[in-house]
């Protein structure tokens, strides 16, 4: 997988955690049980992302260890303790603590604070991501981080540079998909044939095919993290007909809507 794809996936996961942190999560009573429930359901969300990415052949279907474990971490001004798992690298733990401490030290607000966390670490063999949220109590005496450790072998990441024109064309098309791809190619003084060849090389498929897959990730966000109906989601993401969205998920990729947790609709996250 090209590093450009890795960065796009990483950005989508980060955006999902920001949306998750903005949900009206019940924080009046922070018990270990309620925190573990939040951790469990946010893990379901992340695992659903991974499942779709594997279905789309963006992540390798032959690798089963992208998701590693959930972590429930308790922070105070002077201590950091993992509540539900074995120890992790002390440098990783300190980096997580450093992200949370400024919020514990902030005495300008007496309201609970929910912070999205998205932290990377790289070793010789793997690239790790710790993604989730941290909830600071109203009195700022303690915070709990609900994180998920994921990892990707560095051998799956190809690091050569993507052509600048292709990156710019992607950003432009994402903002305005009504623009003709041939016209965009002409604007960048690139032949359409050369553009499609580069797309397959760097994106793993044709440009428009990858755009469809990316839109599926955006739809997945709304299915899990909003109470919009499927028809409303189809309209929001500019599918001209609900049936087109249905066919894309159900028929083309065999990823039925019933397998996608509707966390907000089912009121799981907000109890």
TrEMBL record:
Lineage of the species this protein comes from: Bacteria, Pseudomonadati, Bacteroidota, Flavobacteriia, Flavobacteriales
Q: Which InterPro entries match?
A: HTH_AraC (IPR018060)
Q: Name one Pfam family in it.
A: HTH_18
Drop me one GO molecular function for this one.
sequence-specific DNA binding
The HTH araC/xylS-type domain, residue ranges: 164-263
Q: Which domain of life is it from?
A: Bacteria
Which first-to-last residue range defines the signal peptide?
A: none
Q: Which Gene3D superfamilies match?
A: Homeodomain-like
- Specify the protein name: Helix-turn-helix domain-containing protein
Which species is listed as the source?
Chryseobacterium wanjuense
Q: Which SMART domains match?
A: HTH_ARAC
